């Protein structure tokens, strides 16, 4: 079980998942993580009050509280292993390619494979 300063609790997580989650938190929001025992940690971070209040207002409008929403988000990140740096980079690459008016396009997957085979022969 992990506990953050706000009282956030995460249960039934594997050690690797916890380490990954804490790395994400540290990277995204500069969270400070302190081990309390083998099964708990304290996370502490500072953020802009207006950002927090806006987030809290949106979350509350859906009948949730901040802690519950963050826990649900964290579990979703762990379950789907996203977002990670590789996925974010791939999305950015696709977005940049879509902006290029001279990009090459294909009408079928077999067309792509045929071009790849031609490249291998050269």
First-to-last CA distance = 57 Å
- Helix proportion: 55-70%
Beta content: 5-15%
The count of β-strands is 4
Q: Outline, from the CA principal axes?
A: elongated
What this model shows, in words?
This protein has 122 residues and is mainly alpha-helical. 58% of the residues lie in helices and 10% in strands. The chain contains five helices and four strands. The strands form two sheets. A two-stranded antiparallel sheet has the order 1-2. A two-stranded antiparallel sheet has the order 3-4. The longest helix has 15 residues. The chain is elongated and about 60 Å long. The protein starts with a strand and ends with a helix. The N terminus is likely disordered.
Q: Secondary-structure blueprint of this entry?
A:
Blueprint: E1 2-3, E2 9-10, H1 15-29, E3 32-35, E4 41-44, H2 49-61, H3 66-80, H4 85-99, H5 109-121
Antiparallel strand pairs: 1-2, 3-4
Quick summary of this structure?
The chain is mainly α.
Features:
122 residues; mainly alpha; two-stranded antiparallel ribbon; 4 strands; elongated
């Amino acid at each position: 079980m992990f506990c953050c300063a706000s009282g956030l609790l995460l249960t039934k997580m594997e050690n690797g998942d916890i380490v990954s989650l804490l790395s994400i938190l540290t990277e995204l929001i500069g969270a400070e993580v302190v081990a309390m025992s083998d099964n708990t940690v304290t996370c502490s971070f500072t953020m802009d009050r207006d950002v927090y209040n806006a987030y809290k207002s949106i979350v509350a409008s859906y009948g949730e509280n901040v802690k519950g929403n963050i826990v649900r988000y964290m579990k979703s990140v762990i379950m789907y292993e996203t977002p990670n740096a590789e996925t974010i980079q791939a999305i950015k690459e696709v977005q940049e390619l879509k902006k290029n008016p001279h990009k090459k396009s294909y009408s079928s997957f077999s067309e792509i494979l045929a071009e790849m085979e031609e490249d291998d022969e050269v």
